């Protein structure tokens, strides 16, 4: 499981060096250097080990092809998405279209989101950071959180 926040950088060539804690997890659990990098909104990059992305694809395939939400999900994740292979130094290239849209260059934060990683512009994320509302906390309490 990916958890926590690890600030890092995306270099001028669009390469994100996977933080050591996450790379160790990838090596231990997934034993693969294949990933799918995408977004649902163009504001943050989502990095999935390919095995996790394939689980999502299987769920999407079970939705009727005429379902408009299925089509919308596929349009967005395909538009922003691209397969990526981690190099020998533990780096992944975030393709230019998503890198520009999400402003993930220079200082970024990488969040562990259980089965995938999320990459956000550090300053942009801090500017939007707000505490959870009482209503949000109440809603989560229904799940025992």
UniProtKB/TrEMBL annotation:
InterPro entries in the record: MraZ (IPR003444), MraZ_C (IPR035644), MraZ_dom (IPR020603), MraZ_N (IPR035642), MraZ_sf (IPR038619), SpoVT-AbrB_dom (IPR007159), SpoVT-AbrB_sf (IPR037914)
Molecular-function GO term, any one: transcription cis-regulatory region binding
UniProt-listed Pfam families: MraZ
UniProt key word Transcription regulation: yes
Keywords for the protein's UniProt record, in alphabetical order: Cytoplasm, DNA-binding, Repeat, Transcription, Transcription regulation
Subcellular location: Cytoplasm, Nucleoid
UniProt GO BP: negative regulation of DNA-templated transcription initiation
Domain of life: Bacteria
HAMAP family named in the record: MraZ
Family the UniProt entry places it in: Belongs to the MraZ family.
Oligomeric and partner information: Forms oligomers.
Cross-referenced PANTHER family: TRANSCRIPTIONAL REGULATOR MRAZ
Annotated protein name in UniProt: Transcriptional regulator MraZ
Organism listed in the record: Granulicella arctica
